């Protein structure tokens, strides 16, 4: 989607077809440690989206999600099925029954890849139902509803995924606190490479917990060191110092290796990106599989992308996080608490190109 705006979240009016979407996300620094109260930084991947479409249908509420082989009336899904749960939670919150409608879910975001596919699908559903009934919901409310479903997916999530996706802007996040916006001094050019190996967030987060319980002092120290990298990275981002940010990302990858959440395939991709000229690279998300994220100079993007593919990446996406000058015009519109139907984010942050693979 390049320099253009990304789609409005919601289109359609009550009683006709309503469509809503939500972006993917990538964690720039701080995963895992964020579960233990340390800060983390995440950005939206606005070019990769999940879409929820509600079409009038002679009841009862029916859900189609071909990617996960769901094609059933809501009442036939177990109540703790993630798709059913977000529908019930939203209906309860807005005090309306699930409408006589067909809900169809489509998504460009690969499942189990650390790119927030589950949270994006839930967010799109909340937005679609709220728009169907004309009930405005703000990002903190959407984020809180989606968090409940994230708990089914992940057990003890920090809340960073639902937050960055519901706000769809770069965030500095500490568990249990409202997110802080992240000033971006100069546009960041990122490559996200999918290893093609699923990342099982619940299992990896559980493993880290077991290690932390077995060796609390060692893991607390590792989390503290991650927090130092995150705070230094935040400053580097604000100052537009991509080289310093790259060094922090490299250091964060080493700490994630020490935590035991990397994998040979991730180390290989990280190494390939660095050798091809990336300013920094690290695994992103829970690890063991999933993605790596590389920070590049714009001029090096193509060669680093090629190197990632040669090293075995199943997909590579490019995304730009707009710096303040680029974002300024549109950031005036970006008021975090405005109701979703009254707002259209203009692709100022997390502006992403469409998948290039
Ligand atoms: C998953 O995207 C990020 C983790 O830090 C888990 C969480 O924050 O809930 C691994």
Description:
This protein is of the alpha+beta class and 357 residues long. It folds into two domains: 10-173, Ribosomal Protein S5, domain 2, CATH 3.30.230; 183-342, 2-Layer Sandwich (Alpha-Beta Plaits), CATH 3.30.70. The chain has ten helices and twelve strands. The strands form two sheets. Strands 1, 2, 3, 4, 5, 6, 7 and 8 form an eight-stranded mixed sheet that branches. Strands 10-11-9-12 form a four-stranded antiparallel sheet. Strand 1 and strand 2 form a beta hairpin. (R)-mevalonate binds at residues 27, 31-32, 34-35, 114, 154, 157-158, 160-161, 201, 205, 285-286. (R)-mevalonate (MEV) binds at residues 27, 31-32, 34-35, 114, 154, 157-158, 160-161, 201, 205, 285-286.
What topology does this entry show?
Blueprint (H helix, E strand, L loop, with lengths): L9 E2 L6 E12 L10 E17 L5 E4 L4 E4 L8 H13 L6 E7 L9 H16 L6 H16 L5 H8 L3 E3 L6 E2 L6 E7 L6 H14 L1 H24 L2 H18 L4 H12 L4 E5 L6 E6 L4 H10 L4 E7 L2 H8 L26
Parallel strand pairs: 4-6
Antiparallel strand pairs: 1-2, 2-3, 3-6, 3-7, 4-5, 7-8, 9-11, 9-12, 10-11
Helix pairs in contact: 1-2, 1-3, 2-3, 3-4, 5-6, 6-7, 8-9
